[in-house]
Specification:
The chain is 55% helix and 12% strand. It has 220 residues and is an alpha/beta fold. Helix 1 packs across helix 8, helix 2 packs antiparallel against helix 3 and helix 3 runs parallel beside helix 5. Bound molecules: adenosine-5'-diphosphate (ADP) and thymidine-5'-diphosphate. Adenosine-5'-diphosphate binds next to helix 1, helix 6 and helix 8. Thymidine-5'-diphosphate (TYD) binds next to helix 4. It is an enzyme of class 2 (transferase). Phosphorylation of dTMP to form dTDP in both de novo and salvage pathways of dTTP synthesis. Its EC number is 2.7.4.9. It comes from Pulveribacter suum.
Length: 220
């Protein structure tokens, strides 16, 4: 049985995920929980090698999707599942919802095939053998693609995904919206176009609302 807590951060590039993940880890640490911050693609030596290929080498949509799931399987087996079994809080910057949004929405890869690959990659990992491992909460940092592009232009040199045109990110955002509608309460939508302190407060409040942090954490 899973005793830990698995929370993922999602949203288009430039939404503010990386800016807020450490604050949530600190809030859990203050509440006496061990929090592990990790990311996808990546999080293990093998998956970080695959990340380099994904971010910089040209490839077709199927190759991209297979590499993303290969990286995820290694990350789950080596890092996420053992941490959850130890009772830790795992905070992951992107997970399978990103595959539905980027490869499904952005690249147009078949949604049903993605569901089958998800089932394959996230089942039989030793925690709950018959169940597909999924996050308990997904914090979806939602903001208009135009605003995310403006933030990114001021922040860093683009990788292979960030260099895509605005229309790509509009499709990715639609992919996230579709996934959120399908996932129901697992998704918490964060108004990521607001000032940082509001975004941080909403993020903490979503977690506190579920009883995983003390309520005063939400007010901090
Ligand atoms: N609420 C916010 N308001 C304005 N700028 C922000 C906000 N949150 C993050 N940023 C800035 O936007 C850029 C992208 O943020 P980042 O956290 O790297 O996004 P992501 O990890 O989702 O790609 C960074 O320069 C960051 O400082
Ligand atoms: C996890 C995942 C990420 N990606 C893409 C989205 C991002 O553009 C890129 C790297 O994600 P990310 O770590 O958010 O990039 P950065 O550190 O530059 O903010 O990988 C996919 O296309 N599919 C996936 O399943």
């Amino acid at each position: 049985m899973t005793t830990g807590l698995f929370i993922t951060f999602e949203g288009i590039d430039g939404a503010g995920k990386s800016s807020h993940i450490d604050a949530l880890a600190r809030a859990f640490a203050q509440a006496g929980r061990t929090a592990l911050v990790t990311r996808e693609p990546g999080g293990t030596p093998l998956a970080e090698k695959l990340r380099e290929l994904l971010l910089h080498d040209a490839m077709d949509a199927l190759t991209e999707t297979l590499l993303v799931f290969a990286a995820r399987r290694d990350h789950l087996a080596q890092v996420i599942v053992p941490a959850l079994a130890r009772g830790e809080v795992v905070l992951c910057d992107r997970f399978t919802d990103a595959t539905f949004a980027y490869q499904g929405g952005g690249r147009g890869f078949d949604w049903q095939v993605l569901s089958q690959m998800e089932q394959l990659a996230q089942t039989g990992l030793g925690l709950e053998p018959d169940l597909m491992l999924n996050p308990q909460l997904t914090l979806w940092f939602d903001l208009p693609p135009e605003l995310a592009a403006r933030r990114l232009a001021a922040a860093r040199a683009p990788d292979r995904f960030e260099a895509q045109p605005l229309e790509f990110f509009t499709r990715v955002a639609q992919g996230y919206a579709r996934r959120a509608a399908e996932a129901g309460p697992r998704f918490a939508r964060i108004d990521a176009d607001r000032a940082r302190e509001h975004v941080a407060a909403q993020m903490l409040a979503e977690v506190a609302e579920r009883g995983w942090l003390p309520a005063q954490g939400a007010a901090a």
